[in-house]
Amino acid sequence: MGTGRGMGGAGESIRVEDSSVSSRNEERGTEEKETERRALDSSPSSRLHAHAHAHAHAHPPNTHPQISTVTPMGDRVLVKAVVEEARTSSGIFLPSTSATKPNQGQIVSAGSSVESVKAGDTVVYSSYAGTEVDMGGMPHFILKNDDLVGTLGSGSDVSKMTPLQDRVLIRVDEVSDTSSGGLLLTDSAKEEPTIGEVVAVGPGVTNGDEVKKVESVVGSKVMYQKFSGSEYKGEDGKQYIVVRDGDIIATVA
What we know:
- There is one protein chain.
- The chain has three domains: about 1-60; about 65-155, GroES chaperonin (10 Kd Chaperonin, Protein Cpn10, Chain O), CATH 2.30.33; about 160-253, GroES chaperonin (10 Kd Chaperonin, Protein Cpn10, Chain O, Roll), CATH 2.30.33.40.
- The chain contains two helices and 15 strands.
- By secondary structure, it is an alpha+beta fold.
- The termini are far apart.
- The longest helix has about 40 residues, at about 1-40.
């Protein structure tokens, strides 16, 4: 009987020991997993992932509805931009800095106070002007009427442009490639030309019921202020500039 109890006690002791060892093993396993988790959490990639996840929840993606209709107000117009790939006669693509064609587009609609252009007209507009909107995957611009430089007929030849408002189209005089002493001049050494021939003029500016007409006359030789207007190159290879009538400082002969 005593022996039986002794054996029973030993068995219970063994079972208690086994349970204690199992508990310690589980604790060590838990500690190892916790150590691994901390190591992963401290890695740069894990921190980056956590930051991105938090940022995505704090700043959900842009879900603005697609714009399908724009109605310009007042003196503004909606223009669908004409995007052309500039290339040489041999088919070589030109970078944007080498392109000579003006910013142009087609009038889609106009505000109630716009009378100089109408829907369907092809216009040239100032660089960096207006607000761009994406409609149907195509770039459009909301521009002020004053941002429109002129209108074009067929094609994009600026030498055939009809200026708008008080603007004047001038064919710039060519600059000599040589100095008075016969030295060949580089482009950077050539003096900036400020003289040219008036090719076309706008109708003038409307102020209430009065129209202030352009003073410059087609065919006259004029001098204009430096760094004024927008420069273009015509299909005839000539340089052109469109300036305000007020930027013309004198007629010359």
